[in-house]
Amino acid sequence: MSGALLVAGTTSDAGKSVVTAGICRWLARQGVRVAPFKAQNMSNNSMVTADGAEIGRAQVMQAQAAGVEPEAAMNPVLLKPGGDDASQVVVLGRPVAEVTALSYRPMKAALLEQVLASLADLRSRFDVVVCEGAGSPTEINLRADDIANMGLATAAGLPVVVVGDIDRGGVFPALYGTVALMPPADQRLVAGFLVNKFRGDVRLLRPGLDRLTALTGRPTLGVLPWLPGAALDVEDSLGVPTGVSSAGPPHGEEVLRVSVARLPRLSNFTDLDALAAEPGVLVRYATRPEELADADLVVLPGTRATVSDLAWLRATGLAEAVGRRAAEGRPVLGICGGHQMLARTITDDVESRAGTVAGLGLLPADVSFAREKTLGRPSGEALGHPVRGYEIHHGVVTYADGAEPFLDGGRAGAVWGTTWHGALENDGFRRAFLAEVARAAGRRFVPAPDTSFAAVREQRLDALGDLVAEHADTAALWRLLEEGPPDGLPLLPPGGSSGAAR
């Protein structure tokens, strides 16, 4: 078996990533060797593979769902937005160019060849490859040089399942219109639909599903119920919640409150997932100084645009509030770009090309941006516990004397800075760090002694596998994987010449 299919969506955030992960987990449970694939991902939420390649964090999560090691071929093209109209292009895990939306388009023909080669490589080594689309497959202004949706599907002959988000409303016109706007060659690959995020009695939906089938000639292959907490390792910071996490009862006497600066170009925000999974820890995202007032810990997270986001931090008043906290000895943690903001000076002739600007001056350090990106999987020890993480940065932080080393960064009083992403996923270190924060904040908070973040993630991935196994037409999915796109699917106007003619 060397099957593959493409999971497309009517919109961004329709649920393509979690459906892909769910199908991967369902197949892996059947003993199928399965790999995820996303031809082109636009995201600042990325990770480093074991061999030092940078890929989208969603594909790392999907590889975990499949029970395989993530690799560059699973996400051959990654676009990392750094400004209003600029992105870094990462190909097979390595940065190759900075582009605008228009200057990127001439590159895509060559990138399609790389995408197809990566997909063919995975198909030669795995039983099944589950591909995830990007945005909508019916971006008619971009179809001519598409490499991530129907351009990929037509080039590789992939059957396509379209996911619609019913929680947004308008799922029936979205599903119908997605197919109807496609040219005939694309329509012939769309084998069916999945309705996602449904709340209520599915019997109420049945007349609409039957009518959709009558209009399109394509079945609905499942109605997936709303699953709280299903969005793992989201690609876009727009998916980051604006409220607070659900903390549960604290192990000690008090809850620990964490406020995270919601930077405009926030990256690697999954660094905070491990804190949000800890009993008794409330994580919330802040855009105003008053939202830091009662926080026991303030986090400056990663960013794709350190200098620009530092300017935003100052414009909102958050920078001044963070400075007051540090002066009072109240805990502050900076991660990667947030760590760079804590330095005295930042010299950037690479990303922002702003030259030397003043940092927050809360750590005795200076930052200089290197043209070569640092990508790595470091390991070490901190607070008496082993720690493993990953690094993705151009900024190099150099410390003066007087700072205590901390995860390749430093600590001064209650201010910590680290270049490592993923450090908080290490259970022993996370508990020790939270205990330090609680002491500095004067809280009677005691971290739970047995929280396993890896186990929490596995439970969430199992829930996605259950979602597919229990609510999707798995027999139909098997047929698509074994036989490819069905023959004789009707064409819809305007893709067809005379309505739903065969």
Automatic annotation (TrEMBL):
Source superkingdom? Bacteria
Q: Which GO terms describe its molecular function?
A: ABC-type vitamin B12 transporter activity; catalytic activity
Pfam (any one): CbiA
Q: For this entry, list what GO says about its biological process.
A: cobalamin biosynthetic process
Domain (CobQ/CobB/MinD/ParA nucleotide binding): give its ranges.
6-228
Give the keywords, sorted: Cobalamin biosynthesis, Glutamine amidotransferase
CobB/CobQ-like glutamine amidotransferase domain sequence ranges? 257-427
Active-site residues (renumbered): 336 (nucleophile), 421
Q: In which pathway does it act?
A: Cofactor biosynthesis; adenosylcobalamin biosynthesis
InterPro entries per record = Class_I_gatase-like, CobQ/CobB/MinD/ParA_Nub-bd_dom, CobQ_GATase1, CobQ_N, CobQ_synth, GATase_3, P-loop_NTPase
> Record's CDD domains?
CobQ_N (cd05389), GATase1_CobQ (cd01750)
Its function, per the record, reads: Catalyzes amidations at positions B, D, E, and G on adenosylcobyrinic A,C-diamide. NH(2) groups are provided by glutamine, and one molecule of ATP is hydrogenolyzed for each amidation.
Q: Which family does it belong to?
A: Belongs to the CobB/CobQ family. CobQ subfamily.
Name recorded for this polypeptide: Cobyric acid synthase
Native species of this protein? Answer: Geodermatophilus nigrescens
